[in-house]
Amino acid sequence: MDTHDLVAVSDRRQQHVERVLAAFFSDSHYRAKALGAPYAALWQTLERNASGGKRFRPRMVMAAYESLGGTDLDAAAHVGAAFELLHTALIVHDDVIDRDFVRRGGPNVSGSYRDIATTAGIPLPTAEHRGMSVAIIAGDLALFNSYRLIDRSGVDGLLRTRLHDILDEAMFVSAAGELYDVDFSIRAEPPTVDEIIEMEALKTAGYSFEGPLAAGAVLAGGSPEAIAALSTFGRDIGIAYQIVDDLLGVFGDEGATGKTTLGDLREGKRTVLLAHAVGHPQWAEVSDLFGRPDLTAEEGDRIRTVLEEIGSRRFAEALARDFANRAWEALVGDDLPGTVREEFRPIVAAVLGRVR
């Protein structure tokens, strides 16, 4: 399949998902209006915060589904939209945990309601509390309705139960990963590389890759072996993707990523880079700079220089390549048809291509 065909297929899948989400939010707006303007406004804010993403998780569902021979694209789009709504719930709540008020360059749910309150003359601490309170409500709505979208897919009986179980497992392990991430941020002893990898597997890979791929395979009627292979692929490619994302957060091209390379350093984000670096004496030269909210560009360059010199960048790049290669190995057995390898080869290549 050439690049033009890949783009056409991706666009077609996204259009299916967009229609499902548009219908869901239209119905929710109609219901909310009966309960008053403030509640209707909350749903409008939630819809804005669910818009504008790459719809990556629904694409994983539909890629697995179609590559295994599935043809009911409406059902697949509903299951994909369920994972997208789960993603919305998790990032809304994650922003509350991180006390962030901006997402994708604009106010998130917390920020929107904080700004409404400050405009009304409410003091900032109270306004921020109001914003985060409303965000918790919005995240709860998105979380619950992710399950409802599976109910609207048209599947029933044992198949619906299995899809609910996959979504439940994705949420269950993601919550564990979030808990470990929170604990890492306050723990005196830095986490090890293995602990970081396990946290990223739980927090991100489980609901972004492993769960959506398993759901698409189950919906298509894939064999237990095919489902297991795609799940393994999802876990390993998800870990590789997150390691690369953390690398780009420090060493990336801001023009290409749209993300500052100072944010993770100012936050003191626990990543494979940090876990590798803290074991080297030279890290002590910059350890007092890491995690400073007022870190300057020059200080950020000093940290990057140390990470380069002690080999932390090379270590993380090699680890990402290793997990991407493991992911590919999960696809090359006899349990999966060639259509699956054709479908996911570009994803492995894209992850590997982001490393340098």
From TrEMBL:
It comes from the Bacteria. The keyword Transferase applies. InterPro entries: Isoprenoid_synthase_dom_sf, Polyprenyl_synt, Polyprenyl_synt_CS. GO terms for biological process: isoprenoid biosynthetic process. GO terms for molecular function: metal ion binding; prenyltransferase activity. Gene3D superfamilies: Farnesyl Diphosphate Synthase. It holds the Pfam family polyprenyl_synt. Keywords: Magnesium, Metal-binding, Transferase. Its cofactor is Mg(2+). PANTHER family: GERANYLGERANYL PYROPHOSPHATE SYNTHASE, SHORT CHAIN ISOPRENYL DIPHOSPHATE SYNTHASE. Belongs to the FPP/GGPP synthase family. This is Polyprenyl synthetase family protein. The lineage of its organism: Bacteria, Bacillati, Actinomycetota, Actinomycetes, Micrococcales.
